[in-house]
Amino acid sequence: MPSVDLEYPTQPYSKVNRYDSRASYALETIHQIVNACPILHVSFNVPNSPFPTILPMVGRMGSFARPSADLGDVLELYLHGYVSSRIMNLSRSSSSTSGGKGDEEKKGEGEEEQGLPVCVAASLVDGLVLALTPNSHSYNYRSAVLFGRAAVVRDAEEKLYAMELLTDSVARGRWRGTRVPPNAAEMQSTSVLRVRIAAGSAKVRCGSPKDDRADRRDDELLDRVWTGVVPVYYTLGDPVPGPYNRVRELPRYLREFRDGFNSDARETAVAAAMPVEEGKKKGEEEEV
Predict the structure, then answer these.
(1) Alpha-carbon span 264 to 270, nearest angstrom
(2) In this structure, is the dihedral angle defined by the CA atoms of residues 84, 88, 94 and 97, taken in order, positive or negative?
(3) Which one-letter DSSP state was computed for residue 19?
(4) Minimal CA–CA distance to 82: which of 186, 194, 189?
(5) Which pLDDT tens digit goes with each residue over 30-49?
(6) Nearest to 229 by CA among 135, 127, 134
(7) DSSP assignment string, 234-280
(8) How many CB atoms lie within 10 A of CB 115?
């Protein structure tokens, strides 16, 4: 754990301007949001295309050089994909470095970073904020955006590290609960991107509705319109065995992961719905 709270540098392209009181540049906050999001949206530019491309991808923050690093440390983002996909081919052609544990030491001071420029977005809805008027409705949410350069992981050890990291992001402990390591054909058909982060920001909304003062003084309106927050959280249901499954008992690691995930998700959403003390957030009008 770093001795101080590390933050990403604030850049013109990463700075939160609207409701900047909800902004955070803290590595721990941003990395927590990214790791909590089951699907990340990755955008990049394709040569000769008039539009940017956006792909849904599975990703996870981690550090091959420092596997025990926590979420408040400097980390890379690993993304999983098919070996010949467009983003993999573009990343491969945009980078000539192989990566690995010594990559940072090999990179000369002032040398331009290699890799495909990408923007990664993570969004989570924690509640429906229902106010007196439609204009004051909102969401409780956590969102994060990362900016960096993506390169294909070529080092075999780092690739295995990333594949385990990504597999366990789907269900904690799943990697060891399967046939591992992957065989040669599986390794050849799968690619992993490592995104070195240049900047990032988060924006978080929590608390109860905030209506205009005039509406809050309207007794007829207060007596007629229900206001509050409906917590929203993603839950894991009861596992359904596959057609050739022979394991009668659900493995303990899966049961504990499901139960812990559901409990944490509910607690997070309910806690976000609690009223925020006056003065902690700027602004009365509501807007996502």
Answers:
(1) 10
(2) negative
(3) T
(4) 189
(5) 999 999 999 999 999 999 99
(6) 127
(7) ---------TT----SPPHHHHHHHHHHHHHHHHHHHHHHSPPPTTS
(8) 22
